[in-house]
């Protein structure tokens, strides 16, 4: 028998955005720059849409790693923002762990740069601390596909679930009837083909009204 289906719950989940910094993002080669940025911003939008407690952190952002990309802070201006002075593993920073604990959530949705270090180390540490971890694969990037696969395998073996941002959105939403237009618009903003579906839907609805 397989493991029990442990699904995301918007009332139990928190979002951790780790080291999406301008310098580090320049290292990402396993996704195209446009696709990667779109996925990161989509995930930030998901956190906002579902009102998830969100924690932002950067590593040595006054150095070559660079500042956080502004789109994240624009969407989460009130989120705790931990500027780590040097710790590579964010879980080694007491302030970061405290704000994660303060969310009161046991499910952690994690994405960051780079996958094998900034995401991997936090994921393994959080699992060890008793959290259920969901890694957003397409909003986490690294040097190449070989490194990507090794990092995914390491985290999966430790118990993390690998997801993409679209899957996260749908699993949190559960039922289209909760807010069809809201989720549809979110998806449309990041998936041009989905925008076509929404346009067709609204055209049909207008025809029915007419």
TrEMBL record:
Classification via SUPFAM superfamilies: Isochorismatase-like hydrolases (SSF52499)
Species per Swiss-Prot/TrEMBL record: Gimesia aquarii
NCBIfam families, per database record: C_hydro_YcaC
InterPro entries in the cross-refs: Hydrolase_YcaC-like (IPR053152), Isochorismatase-like_dom (IPR000868), Isochorismatase-like_sf (IPR036380), YcaC (IPR048239)
Annotated Pfam families: Isochorismatase
Boundaries of every Isochorismatase-like domain copy: 14-164
Record's protein name: Nicotinamidase/pyrazinamidase
């Amino acid at each position: 028998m397989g493991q029990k289906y442990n699904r995301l719950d918007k009332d139990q989940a928190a979002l951790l955005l780790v080291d999406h910094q301008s310098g580090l993002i320049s290292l990402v080669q396993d996704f195209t720059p446009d696709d990667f940025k779109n996925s990161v911003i989509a995930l930030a939008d998901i956190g906002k849409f579902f009102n998830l407690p969100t924690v932002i952190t950067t590593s040595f952002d006054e150095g070559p790693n660079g500042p956080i990309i502004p789109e994240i802070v624009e969407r989460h201006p009130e989120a705790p923002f931990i500027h780590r002075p040097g710790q590579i593993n964010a879980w080694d920073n007491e302030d970061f762990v405290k704000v994660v604990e303060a969310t009161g959530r046991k499910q952690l949705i994690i994405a960051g740069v780079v996958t094998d270090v900034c995401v991997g180390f936090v994921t393994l540490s959080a699992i060890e601390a008793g959290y259920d971890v969901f890694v957003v694969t397409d909003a986490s990037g690294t040097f190449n596909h070989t490194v990507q696969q090794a990092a995914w395998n390491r985290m999966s073996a430790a118990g993390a679930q690998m997801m993409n941002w679209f899957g996260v959105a749908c699993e949190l939403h559960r039922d289209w009837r909760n807010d069809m237009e809201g989720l549809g618009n979110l998806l449309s903003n990041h998936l041009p083909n989905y925008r076509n579906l929404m346009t067709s839907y609204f055209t049909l609805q207008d025809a029915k009204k007419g």
